[in-house]
TrEMBL record:
PANTHER family: AROM/DEHYDROQUINATE SYNTHASE, PENTAFUNCTIONAL AROM POLYPEPTIDE. The lineage of its organism: Bacteria, Pseudomonadati, Pseudomonadota, Gammaproteobacteria, Pseudomonadales. This is 3-phosphoshikimate 1-carboxyvinyltransferase. The active site is at 627 (proton acceptor). 3-phosphoshikimate binds at residues 333-334, 338, 479, 481, 627, 654. It comes from Halopseudomonas pachastrellae. The keyword Magnesium does not apply. GO terms for biological process: chorismate biosynthetic process; tyrosine biosynthetic process. It is an enzyme of class 2 (transferase). The keyword Signal does not apply. Belongs to the prephenate/arogenate dehydrogenase family. Residues 15-303 form the Prephenate/arogenate dehydrogenase domain. It catalyses: 3-phosphoshikimate + phosphoenolpyruvate = 5-O-(1-carboxyvinyl)-3-phosphoshikimate + phosphate; prephenate + NAD(+) = 3-(4-hydroxyphenyl)pyruvate + CO2 + NADH. Pathway: Amino-acid biosynthesis; L-tyrosine biosynthesis; (4-hydroxyphenyl)pyruvate from prephenate (NAD(+) route): step 1/1; Metabolic intermediate biosynthesis; chorismate biosynthesis; chorismate from D-erythrose 4-phosphate and phosphoenolpyruvate: step 6/7. Pfam families: EPSP_synthase, PDH_C, PDH_N.
């Protein structure tokens, strides 16, 4: 028999399955299990004669009965699929029977009430009882609507208790998995809280709104004018009233908590409308819009991807491409982050153009929205920030999730150390491995109270209300993030704060602070700031990111016949290591139309093919090209002779260990690349086709896309979703200049 997931057929491990209640959910479970081959026999039990008549002909069960005792006799698994409030009566009958080792599970949508009923009837929840809830349904109901694939790609939440036997949980989990569901575990209380907020409350609101409008407009004429918005919002008011009545009775406490929070927020909105408080209205609407968009993305991903493949986002880059034309790459990531931070802390309205709409800078934007800053956009790179002043941030409602972005976490830690509220900063798997001691330690010396996770890694827990004191900090590593963190903390510390760097690093923070009218003294390697001044809103034009342009600089340099112009690229002297190094290797790069825009130098960069040669990379260029090494390694692989990089151990603590990951990838393509503790030695030569791992590092993924221009076969690049952190639209732009890179089709 076929397994409905399309996986290998299951071997029967269950003798008899009894499904009590043959509605849509019970019927679909029974039908799917019957088709899966996981059980030898499926018995259905339902009091409704019509359902009983249909169940066998529809292939839902092997046998059907109205008698519960008969149904559960000799059953190995008993599935209770009756309405939540009907559960107690069924349980009471079961408790009186000798059920042997039978595992009992259910599909009730409120778990606390079911567990309570079980406890009352059995004395204690038995170890073989596994509470469950499939998050699936359909507008149709009844056994006639039962579908074996109803649960495919849907979540099923199991809420085992402390005493629940692991084997019982395993069995129930296996059943749901065989039906193609994505099984998760959580506590009873969490389940009821989450469902109250995401399902029960919206149903209550929909019922209520339709009733309010209908009862005040007797002939329902008003609905003739109701457009799509009303239809979308109230669709669920057509759901089964009896079932929903039971849900609210059963999940009373959790629903009340959600409803109270909502009523309070609605009250605030009412007041904002009443007092014409435009800022509050815009704040709520912009935050909600971005949350809804985030949610749509999650839903879209789920809709077209197999559950097991949600992580798979691979590129295929093929040889034979060209690199010609004139393009503008997205906005500078470092400047985009800082524009949100300083714009939020400024007095007045800051307008940003050219903002990078990548996941990293959006994480910063979201963090400030969470702290009460009203930010409009981004829309085509335009962002409007309604600054709240240096002391206007508010405590966020929860922890600040910063995704993949080390810059957000490190810069924010300095700024948040000086606030009077507590914050927790978290990130994705890659960010959670990155060192934060480098910011926590100096901030503690300034008086901040910060806890890190193990070995100085995220999450960061920052206590508010600390008295920060200025200090002179000699930075042990060349890091613009650490420097910026300390300078931002200096805005809140008493007296002056200075940072001295061992080598020049990007100075966007210093430049932008000055752009906002905040005095910063830069004297050689030392930048000094004094608290007590204010930031004044301004306009910011974010240039194209030289770090993103770098992929195309190398692409054009290694591709015979290439001639490419990169428009409006930021050429801040602390960022141009890539240009200097490529030129030293023989690259043909011309800076055109040099100008200054909003305190940052900008140029169009024309790059033409030129044979490259290997070099010893000058160590003073390392901090100036720190993000460009992955793609420079590709240039080195295409160069004649040997390229040596030293003094670059910082590369080992970026989004991935960029020395090791690039060495592994280049070696997989047949390139001689030998990692050293602080760098790499690469001998130029032929690049073959093959498969490489990007380890979720955006710059590694894009670098191997470039390498394909000189490869002898396709390069499959794994795990590329994070390209969206810094370079949304990379594939389209690369194709537009003639590169042969595409998303692997997972279908
Ligand atoms: C950045 C500084 C650099 C860089 C990162 C962005 C910044 O990090 O690698 O992509 O915006 O300040 P380090 O300070 O860790 O070198």
């Amino acid at each position: 028999m076929a397994d409905v997931t399309g996986l290998s057929p299951a071997t029967p491990t269950i003798g008899r399955l009894a499904v009590i209640g043959l509605g849509l959910i019970g019927g679909s479970f029974a039908k799917g299990m019957r088709q899966s081959g996981l059980c030898r026999e499926v018995i259905g039990c339902d009091l409704d004669p019509v359902s009983r008549r249909q169940a066998v002909p529809l292939g839902v069960v092997d046998k059907v009965t109205a008698n519960l005792v008969e149904a559960v006799q000799g059953a190995d698994l008993i599935m209770l699929a009756v309405p939540v409030l009907g559960m107690r009566a069924v349980l009471a009958q079961l408790a009186a029977l000798e059920l042997g080792d039978a595992v009992i599970t259910d599909v009730g949508s409120t778990k606390g009430a079911v567990a309570l009923a079980v406890e009352e009837v059995f004395g204690a929840v038995p170890a073989n009882f596994v509470p469950g809830h499939p998050i699936a349904g359909s507008e149709k109901s009844g056994v006639e609507a039962a579908r074996a694939d109803l649960f495919r790609h849907h979540k099923v939440i199991l809420t085992p208790l402390e005493q629940t036997a692991a084997e019982a949980v395993g069995l129930v989990q296996r059943c749901w998995q065989v039906l193609g569901a994505d099984v998760e575990s959580m506590s009873l209380a969490d389940h009821d809280e989450v469902l109250a907020a995401t399902s029960h409350l919206p149903h209550l609101l929909a019922f209520s709104l339709v009733d309010t409008l209908a009862s005040r407009n007797e002939n329902l004429e008003i609905f003739r004018y109701a457009a799509g918005g009303f239809r979308d919002f109230t669709r669920i008011a057509a759901s089964d009233p009896v079932m929903w009545r039971d849900v609210f009775l059963a999940n009373r406490d959790a629903v009340l908590r959600s409803l109270d929070a909502f009523t309070q927020d609605l009250g605030r909105l009412r007041e904002a409308v009443d007092t014409r408080d435009a800022n509050t209205l815009l704040g709520v609407f912009t935050r909600a819009k971005s949350a809804r968009e985030h949610f749509s993305t999650i839903l879209a991903r789920r809709a077209y991807m197999e559950p097991m493949q949600t992580q798979e986002f691979n590129f295929i880059a093929s040889p034979g491409g060209k690199v010609n034309g004139s393009i503008r790459v997205p906005g500078d990531k470092s400047i985009s982050h800082r524009s949100i931070m300083l714009g939020s802390l400024a007095e007045g309205v800051t307008e940003v153009e050219g903002f990078l709409e990548g996941e990293d800078s959006l994480a910063t934007l979201q963090a400030f929205r969470d702290m009460g800053v009203v930010i409009e956009g981004p829309h085509h790179g335009r962002v409007t920030i309604n600054g709240v002043g240096l002391h206007g941030l508010q405590a966020p409602p929860g922890s600040l999730y910063l995704g993949n972005s080390g810059t957000s976490m490190r810069l924010l830690s300095g700024l948040l150390a000086g606030q009077d509220f507590d914050t927790v900063l978290t990130g994705d798997a890659s960010l959670s491995k990155r060192p934060m001691g480098r910011v926590a330690k100096p901030l503690r010396e300034m008086g901040a109270q910060i806890d890190t996770g193990e070995e100085g890694r995220p999450p960061l827990r920052i206590k508010g209300g600390s008295r920060m004191m200025g200090m002179d900090y000699q930075m042990p590593m060349a890091s613009a993030q650490v420097k910026s963190c300390i300078l931002l903390a200096g805005l809140y510390a008493s007296g002056t704060t200075s940072v001295t760097e061992p080598a020049p690093t990007r100075d966007h923070t210093e430049r932008m602070l000055k752009g906002f009218g905040y005095p910063v003294k830069v004297d050689g390697a030392t930048a000094t700031i004094e608290s007590g001044h204010t930031l004044k809103a301004c306009r910011i034009d974010v240039p194209a990111d030289i770090s993103s342009a770098a992929f195309f600089m190398v692409a054009a340099s290694i591709c015979e016949g290439a001639d490419l112009t990169l428009e409006h690229v930021g050429i801040n002297p602390t960022r141009i290591g890539i240009i200097n190094i490529l030129r030293a290797m023989g690259g043909n790069l011309e800076l055109l139309n040099e100008r200054e825009v909003g305190g940052e130098p900008v140029a169009d960069i024309r790059v033409r093919y030129a044979p490259l040669k290997g070099i010893d990379i000058p160590v003073d260029q390392v901090p100036l090209a720190i993000d460009e090494f992955p793609v420079l390694f590709v240039a080195a692989a295409c160069a004649e002779g040997r390229t040596i990089l030293r003094d670059a151990e910082e590369l080992r603590v970026k989004e991935s260990d960029r020395i090791q990951v690039m060495a592994d990838g280049l070696q997989a393509l047949g390139v001689k690349a030998e990692p050293t503790p602080d760098g790499i030695i690469i001998d130029g030569g032929a690049i073959g086709g093959g498969s490489v791992e990007s380890h979720g590092d955006h710059r590694i993924a894009m670098s191997f896309s470039v390498a394909a221009l000189r490869a002898t076969g396709d390069i499959h690049i794994k795990d590329c979703a994070n390209v969206a952190t810094s370079f949304p639209g990379f594939i389209d732009l690369a194709q537009s200049v003639g590169m042969q890179v595409r998303l692997e089709d997972n279908a």
